[in-house]
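Input/output pair, single chain:
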Amino acid sequence: GGIMVGGKPLHGLQHPELGHIRVARPDSEREAPGVCPFHGDCLEGLASGPAIKARWGAELGELPPDHPAWQLEADYLGQLCAQLVLMVSPQRIVLGGGVMGTEALFAPIRAVARARLGGYVPALERAGDFSQSYNSNGSLITIKDPATGKPYPGNKIPLSQINPLGRSILNFYPQFINLRWVVMTVVACVF
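Output:
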């Protein structure tokens, strides 16, 4: 993986190697060896197609949707996305390759990235738009009108119902990068 700035690859001493970033492993996975010949348990060693096949004996798409590999993969890739947001503050994060060939990973990766970023408020939510807000399970968070208990149409709170003082207080908090663009396959954006 690399970083593009102004449409050109970022270079330093050598090209960036985002696949070799270390990610936190759950206790249940501490003993599972990674396949990276340099680091073992870096992102490439744990989350690449060959790593999944070595760990589980099959490609991700061959495993049932409730197999623990799916959430583990989403966790590792969500950690990468969160780290990139904090380090580079990108407008987009592009994830490609065979592992990203299934849309089943998109929502869980977004949910993990948001959870890992812990507290930054998306710009859409600042404006009362929760149409892109997902919980840690990847399900859309339903926003309800406290007066009626009914969901807001389109999951958007009308600005007339947001206290102007509350909106101005939000200016004192850092704005969260727009995660609508944070995960895409080689050909199609999912955020």
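The mean pLDDT is 79. The helical segments are 43-47, 49-56, 68-88, 106-117, 123-126, 164-169.
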